[in-house]
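Service request form, structural biology core

Requester: graduate student, group of Dr. S.
Request type: structure prediction, single chain
Budget code: on file
Notes: please return the result as structure tokens.

Sequence provided:
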Amino acid sequence: MSSYTSIFVAGTDTGVGKTHVTCRILRRLREQGINAAGAKPVASGMQSVNGEWLNEDIQAICEAAGSQFGPELINQYRYKPYIAPHIAAAERGETIDMGVIMDGFRRLAARAELVVVEGAGGLMTPLNEQHTFLHLMRRLNLPVILVVAIRLGCINHALLAQQGLESAGIPLLAWVANYPAADTVRDIAVEESLGSRLNAPLLGVIPWSSASVNVEMADLVRLIASHEND
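Core staff response, request fulfilled:
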């Protein structure tokens, strides 16, 4: 059995940079010798590339996790329109099944030391008529890394997300300050305000950049190992 716990990367909203953070985490873990797999069980928004419909988030996670984990393991539900997944599923005449997602996670976890699961949208994004991503986090029983996009309103969104996690009994393992908008100036005051109110350590600050830049991150391996031993 792995000595590390799998983790769930959640966001305060859509477009906050969850996939970017997920891929950074995967690359960091694999650089440190951990066989980490990525999962994006539900994805909306696909583009036609050379006659094939692809989702860029799934492709990015595949690349970050290594060739041994293909799209069929990483993802169970994907839809062409960039809309809420439960609406996209209904338009296609299907329902997103939590059991299918759980089975996919188990198959992936059997092949890796840990799995980094990424959500879609925010915590309360519906999966179907009964369940949201918060229900999925609780079913998976994984600690959460919360991605906060540093922009107007982010403190409110982050604290509401923390409240939702606490009410569901889901541990907040760490949080990431991400700057997803082009040429955004770093806002230390907002970062400090979040740091004093979120009941978890700051994993790292990711500035906006058109290039791949190195980012200092807290010792994620220590965090996931210590959580497993709690």
